[in-house]
Amino acid sequence: MNKNKTILQGFEWYLEPNASHWRYVKERSGAIKDAGITAVWLPPAYKGAQGIHDVGYGTYDLYDLGEFDQKGSVPTKYGTKQEYHDLIDALHYHGVDVYADIVFDHFLGADETEEVEAIRFKDNDRNEVIGEPEKIAAWTKFTFPNRHQAYSDYTWTWKNFKGVNHDENTGENAIWGFEGKHWESAVDHENGNYDYLMGADLDMDYQETVEQLDLWGRWYLHQSHVDGFRIDAVKHIRFSFFIDWLKKRNEEAGRELFAVGEYWNGEVERLENYLDSCGGMMHLFDVPLHFNLFHASSSNGSYDMRTIFDHTLLTSRQDWAVTFVDNHDTQEGQSLQSWVEDWFKLQAYSLILLRDTGIPCVFYTDVFDVQTGTIKEDMRILMKVRECLAYGSQMDYFDDPDIVGFTRHGDPSYENSGVAIVLTNAKGGSKRMSVGAMQAGHTFVDCLGNCDERLIIEEDGRADFPVKDGSVSVWINESALAQVK
User: Fold this and answer.
1) Do 195 and 51 reside in the same domain of the chain?
2) Which domain holds residue 432?
3) Least CB-packed of 76, 86, 245, 408 within 10 Å?
4) In a domain, 321, yes or no
5) Strand pairing category for 429-434 and 47-48
6) Residues marked as catalytic
7) What is the distance between the alpha carbons of residues 315 and 250, in angstroms, rounded to a whole number?
C-alpha cells in the first residue's frame, strides 16, 4: 500500500457564494484520487454568521450543516447537508480520506443581546485593564430559532463566553472581558495574551461549554464519518483542551483520527511548545517553512537556498509537520497575506512533495485551474511522482546559495522508483548528485519537461543534473514516464 500521504486543501477564500462547491468537488473526486491525493481537507461545513456568504470561520450554528433556513439561506456557502454527505461518500468510494475543519475559538451572529458586566482591555496588551467594570449589551445569546431545537435544545448565553468586541448599547468596538472571568493563561502570548481573537470568545473553563462541544463532536462524527480534523486557531484556545476532545473522538471512531492544528506563528519554538502541551494529539502546519518559501520567492534571487529548512518544524519535529506552500489565509487580500510568488511555486512544491519527511498539503488554486476545473499538469506530475516514485533513502545537496538538490534512491517495492530533484531561485546550472548504484546505466529525463537532456546514470550512480534559470527539474527513470504522465 502506498505510504505517501498527500492532503488537498479543497477550497479557497474567494469561491463564489453559490452553494455549489460540494457538488463541484464531488464531480472531481475520481480525478483527485488519480492525481495521487490521499485526503481532502474540506472547509467548515456548518452555518456561519453571514449565511451563504460566510467562508465558515464565523461560526453561528454547529448543528446546521446546510439544513435550516438561518442567516438568510438554507445551504451554506458550499451547499446543503445532503450534498456534503454525498461528497464525503464519493471521496470515500475512491479511497480518499476526508478531514473536517473545526472552529471552536468563537461564535458570531448571536440571536439576542444580554446585559453583562464587563471590563475593557487594551487592544495590544490584553493583560492591561482600561477603566472600571461597566454594563454592556453583548451579542451572546444563541437560540437558533429556525432550527427549532433539532439535534440540540441548548441555548448558548454569556456564561459560555469570556468576552466580546462590541457593545450594542454604545455601538463601540473594543475588547471586553466578562466580570468574574479571566483570559486563559495557556495560550499564545502575542498581544500580552491572545485568548481573545474575535466575536464571542468561547470559555473553555465553563464546564457546560466543554460538555456541549463534546456532545457536538460525537454527533458530528456520527453524521459525517470523517477521517480527521483540521483545527482552527489553536493558539487562541487553552493548549490542553483538545487532548480530551480528540481522545473521545478516537474512541468513538474506534481508530486514530488524523488531526492537524493551525498555530499561526513563524517561531518554531512556539510550535514545539504547543506540540508538547497538547500531548502530541495533533500535527501542526509548518508555518515557519511557509515563511521561508515566501521569502525565497520574493527576494529577487538573493535568498540563500541552503537555509530553506532552517528553523522549521520539518527539521525539529518532522513527524508532526504538515508542510504547505500557501492556504486560504495567505491569499492576496487576506489578513495573513504572504503569497508565494507563482514563478517559485513548483520549486516550493518539489521541496514539500518529494522529500521523505513531513505530510504535504497542496492548495486548491495551486492544484486546480480555476478556468477549466482541471488539475494543473505540472502539479499533477509532481503529485504522481510522490505517489509512485519518491521512495528510498534520501541524499541532500544543499551546498550552494542558489542551486540545491536532493535525491531518492528508490525502493524495489515500487517499480522504477528513484528521483533526482534540482532547483534554483536564480541562475541555472547543474548539480552532480547520486541516485544510487542500482540506477547505473538507466536513462533519466526531466518529467516536467523543463530540460530536454537524456542523462545516462554512471556506474557509481551519479550524474550531472541540469536546471534552467529560476526553475526546477525532476529527473526520473525514462521507463517511469508512463506512470506519471
Assistant:
1) no
2) 394-484
3) 86
4) yes
5) unpaired
6) 232, 262
7) 28
